[in-house]
User: Which sequence fits this backbone?
């Protein structure tokens, strides 16, 4: 994922088949994005192409 306004702000989200992302890994990913919880919710619920 790459931030639209700040291309240096990016996050790598691991996808390994049907395994869920572990809580600690998810927390680290979200922290690295420097997004607020509300911004994350908007991105998850976005019906963007």
Assistant:
């Amino acid at each position: 994922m790459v931030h639209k306004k700040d291309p240096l702000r990016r996050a790598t989200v691991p996808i390994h088949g049907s395994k869920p992302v572990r809580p600690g890994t998810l927390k680290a990913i979200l922290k690295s994005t420097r997004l607020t919880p509300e911004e994350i919710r908007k991105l998850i619920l976005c019906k963007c192409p």
About this structure: The radius of gyration is 12 Å.
